[in-house]
Structure formats: structure tokens, C-alpha cells
């Protein structure tokens, strides 16, 4: 993509390019690979939930900072909406955790292992960086979610594979990880991306943020795939 200044890409074109990159340079999903080989255990499912809980806490802090940086429409509406979505997801994730026999925030061997796992903190670091350095088009493109993208598509594929093999998966887990993104929220994200571009922000920087978000989000599945013995 051309450098800022000569680049005239629209928000819709950036979304299309991001999808093209996902297809041309697919990111691994080690958790899905384990599922296809019948190797997923309850410890892996617990890891998914615990890592996502870490993500939620980092996201809420990041959205607060982004709201302070972009307290104007349409960015503020998007950020408040996304924060509400994440806050609501936290309650549902707590129910998923209970269905797997764990409590979010409890001191367990798995929680300790994840606290020491560099990959587990990758997405948290990315959203923190984005909150401090990202323009509104970059943050909004990172918040745009495709149904078949890294998070939603990855989760649905894992649940489909596990259920297809007859593996016992709690209903709460299956329901949570087969959800779909909000079309209304995506429409808002596109509006914010376009607003940032119209203000002179770099489309290349926005695309970089979107691709980085994919790469860091993929660490959810990578981290979950490497559950150690004795974790709970």
C-alpha cells in the first residue's frame, strides 16, 4: 500500500485488503490443529477462558484511554459501545469459567503459568500500545471484526471440530465461542475509520494496526494450545 499522502484508500477498501491478507498469509491456529487431532483437553479450554479474561481487563483500560484521546463523535460512540460489549462479555465469560470448573481471578497453577507466559500478554501489550499511539482510524480498524476472522472464525471452527468429534464441550463454552460480531458495531467502526482517514490519517498505518491486531489475537489460540500437565 502506498505511503500516507499518495494513498487514497477508503475504510471499506482497508477492510477488503485486511481480509485479503488473511487469505494470502493465513495465521496458524494451534488450538484448532489440536482439535482436529483429538488432542484438546479441558485444560486447553480453561486456558482459552483465562487468557481472554486477561484480554478483557487490558481492553477496558485501553478503551478508557482512547476515549480520553478521542472524546468526540463518532469515535466516542464506538468506544463506549465496544466497552459495554466487553463488560457484558466478562459476565458471560465468568459463567463459561464456572462450567469448566474454574473461577476467574482465582490463584491456580494455570493462572500462575499464564502470568509467566510472554505470549499470553501479547494482545494486552498491543491494545495498550494502540491506546497510547494509535490514530482513530487505526484503533477503529483493529476493532472491526469479521465473522470468519481470527477471533470469531477461530472460536467457531474449534467448537465445530470438537462437537463434530463428539467431544464433551460445555454448552456455555460452545455458545460463547460461536458468537458473531455486531453488524451495527462494525458499521460504527467503519464510520470512525473513514472519519480518521478524512482527517488526514495514514491508511497504511491503519492497515498495519488491523493486521497486527490479527497477529496478536492469534496468540489466544497459540497460548491456549500449550497447556501443561497439572494445570487446572
Account of the 3D structure:
There is one protein chain. The chain has 232 residues and is an all-alpha fold. The chain is globular and about 50 Å long. It is built from eleven helices and no strands. It has one domain (13-21, 28-224): Heme Oxygenase, Chain A (Up-down Bundle). It has helices at residues 11-24, 30-36, 42-69, 75-99, 109-115, 122-133, 136-143, 152-164, 171-176, 183-198, 203-224.
Structural class, from secondary structure content?
Answer: mainly alpha
In percent terms, what proportion of residues is strand?
Answer: under 5%
Quickly count the domains.
1
Return residue spans where pLDDT drops below 50 for at least 5 consecutive residues: 1-6
Task: Give the averaged pLDDT, no decimals.
Answer: 94
Considering DSSP H and I runs of 4 or more, what fraction of the residues is helical?
55-70%
Helix count equals: 11
Number of extended strands: 0
CATH-defined superfamily? Heme oxygenase-like
Query: What is the level 1 CATH name?
Result: Mainly Alpha
Amino acid at each position: 500500500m502506498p505511503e500516507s499522502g499518495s494513498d487514497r484508500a477508503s475504510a471499506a477498501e482497508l477492510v477488503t485488503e485486511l481480509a485479503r491478507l488473511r487469505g494470502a498469509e493465513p495465521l496458524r491456529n494451534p488450538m484448532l490443529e489440536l482439535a482436529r487431532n483429538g488432542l484438546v483437553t479441558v485444560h486447553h479450554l480453561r486456558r482459552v477462558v483465562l487468557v481472554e479474561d486477561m484480554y478483557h481487563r487490558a481492553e477496558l483500560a485501553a478503551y478508557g484511554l482512547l476515549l480520553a484521546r478521542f472524546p468526540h463523535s463518532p469515535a466516542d460512540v464506538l468506544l463506549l459501545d465496544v466497552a459495554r460489549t466487553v463488560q457484558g462479555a466478562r459476565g458471560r465469560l465468568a459463567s463459561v469459567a464456572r462450567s469448566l470448573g474454574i473461577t476467574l481471578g482465582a490463584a491456580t497453577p494455570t493462572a500462575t503459568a499464564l502470568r509467566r507466559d510472554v505470549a499470553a500478554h501479547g494482545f494486552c501489550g498491543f491494545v495498550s500500545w494502540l491506546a497510547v499511539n494509535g490514530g482513530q482510524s487505526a484503533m477503529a480498524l483493529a476493532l472491526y471484526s469479521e465473522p470468519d476472522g481470527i477471533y470469531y472464525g477461530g472460536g467457531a471452527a474449534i467448537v465445530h471440530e470438537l462437537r463434530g468429534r463428539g467431544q464433551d464441550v460445555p454448552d456455555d463454552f460452545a455458545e460463547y465461542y460461536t458468537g458473531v460480531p455486531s453488524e451495527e458495531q462494525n458499521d460504527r467502526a467503519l464510520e470512525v475509520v473513514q472519519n480518521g482517514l478524512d482527517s488526514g490519517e495514514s491508511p497504511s498505518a491503519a492497515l498495519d494496526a488491523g493486521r497486527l491486531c490479527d497477529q496478536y489475537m492469534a496468540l489466544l489460540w497459540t497460548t491456549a494450545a500449550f497447556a501443561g500437565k497439572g494445570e487446572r
